[in-house]
Amino acid sequence: MSGLENSLFQLKFAAKSLKKQSQKAVKEEKSEKAKIKKAMAQGNTEIARIYATNAIRKQQEALNLLRLSSRIDAVSSRIQTAVTMRNMSRNMSGVVREMDRATRSMNLEMISRVMDRFETQFDDINVQAGVMEKSMGTATAVDAPQEDVDLLLQSVADEAGLELNQSLNSEPLPQQSATEIQAQEPVPVKAQDLDDLLQERLKALRS
Fold it and tell me: Rounded to 10 degrees, what is the CA torsion of 123, 129, 135, 141?
């Protein structure tokens, strides 16, 4: 195996390995999100924040690994083109020798046949020009921004609230008289910040 072919093999192996690591990080992210929901149901908001930070870190890790895998795959494609071009050069050397003999003898039939081979060789290869992308940027962040943590907590809380509502809606409602229904008045909703909203949802989950 030549140097180029060996490099091509190593790059393809690295791209495949990074893709698997990315998929593993995605699974770990889902696991951390499940832990968030469980911690919130138990009223452990601070622990839920830790899990949320872990989930965001795993999400970013999966994205970075997948991006790097894709870029390595693009490089291996260019090396594959180089290997193909080298093989083409070997084949072309034989065609060039035949062309030399044909032109020396001025055999028109032979010249026409060799030209057909030339055209076939060039049609088989589609050379694409391009430049290498810049190397991958920053590595995986250790800590997640607080805003991202809050947004994830809100998302999990909304999801948990939706599941709770679906569970309640599936239960039969107690019968009420017309007088009781008329006596009911709508309860005004007050504006609340994120922490208050999370606490209300935690109480609903525990009840």
Answer: -70
Q: How many residues in total does the chain contain? A: 207
At 137, is the secondary structure helix, strand, or coil? coil
Measure the CA–CA gap between 90 and 126, rounded to whole angstroms.
17
CA angle 152, 158, 160 (to 5 degrees): 105
Cβ atoms < 10 Å from Cβ of 66: 17
| 72-96 exposure pattern, b = at least 16 Cβ within 10 A, e = fewer | bbebbeebeeeeeeeeeeeebeeee
pTM of full prediction above 0.85: no
Beta strands in 58-132 (DSSP E): none
Fill in the amino acid letter for 9.
F
- pLDDT tens-digit profile of 119-166? 666 555 544 444 444 433 443 344 566 777 777 787 887 776 655 455
Domain boundaries, the chain: 3-83+145-158+194-206
DSSP 106: T
- Note the pLDDT tens digit of each residue in 171-200: 554 555 444 544 444 444 444 455 565 666
What distance in Å separates the CA atoms of residue 1 and residue 8, rounded to the nearest whole number?
A: 10
For residues 45 and 39, give the distance between their C-alpha atoms in angstroms, rounded to a whole number.
7
